[in-house]
Amino acid sequence: MKTIVRAGLAAIPAAIVAFGLSAAANAQDASLVGKGTEWCNPVIGWGNVAARTGDGGYVIHQGSYPCPPAAAAPAPAAVAAVQSEYLVFFDWDKSNITPAADRVIGDAVSAILKNGGAKIHVVGHTDTSGSPAYNQKLSIRRADAVKKALIAKGIQAANITTEGKGESQLLVQTGPNVREPSNRRAQILPRLLNAPSS
């Protein structure tokens, strides 16, 4: 009890004073229990810091308790795998990037950059509405629009090639002059820079 009394009553929490001298004696007796363990609500000494015994243990009282273990750090998020193909779709007779297409391009760029970059080939396509000559030019414009979006999001221009296939490679087979949304598309075909050569 002498150790605690020397610290002064001002340094002893109200909880110990309420329990009387027997509680203070219990605190001194229990001080060794605090050694090697982090204790919450220990006796607070001068300078508003936890009181310590000569051997480094906490001075504890009836209201003290072992602190719960610190939460483990969350595992790092898994890096998204790069898909072999990303598809973006276009409105009829348009080559502008829609919000939905922009999200797909963003996902592709994010995965590619997190995996060390890639060479990317972009292939534009159309449906069968319009003439074959017109559709060939439209498919090239679509591929070029995707290339610009990839560059804007951080892909090096030198790593992107493009081509247009017009209406020659339909995703959904149709007759001539059919406005088929699934055929109005561009393929983003990445090949990782650090991928093993085959």
The helix/strand order is HHHEEEHEHEE
How much of the sequence is in beta strands? 5-15%
Q: What is the domain total for the residues?
A: 2
| CA distance, first residue to last residue | 79 Å
Could you tell me the CATH topology label of the largest domain: 60s Ribosomal Protein L30, Chain: A
The total of beta strands comes to: 6
Which overall shape is indicated by the principal axes computed on the Cα atoms?
A: rod-shaped
Question: What is the residue-mean pLDDT, rounded to a whole number?
Answer: 79
Q: Poorly predicted ranges (pLDDT <50, ≥5 residues)? A: 1-33
Topology:
Elements: H1 2-7, H2 14-19, H3 21-30, E1 39-40, E2 65-66, E3 86-89, H4 99-114, E4 118-124, H5 132-152, E5 160-164, E6 185-192
Parallel strand pairs: 4-5
Antiparallel strand pairs: 1-2, 3-6, 4-6
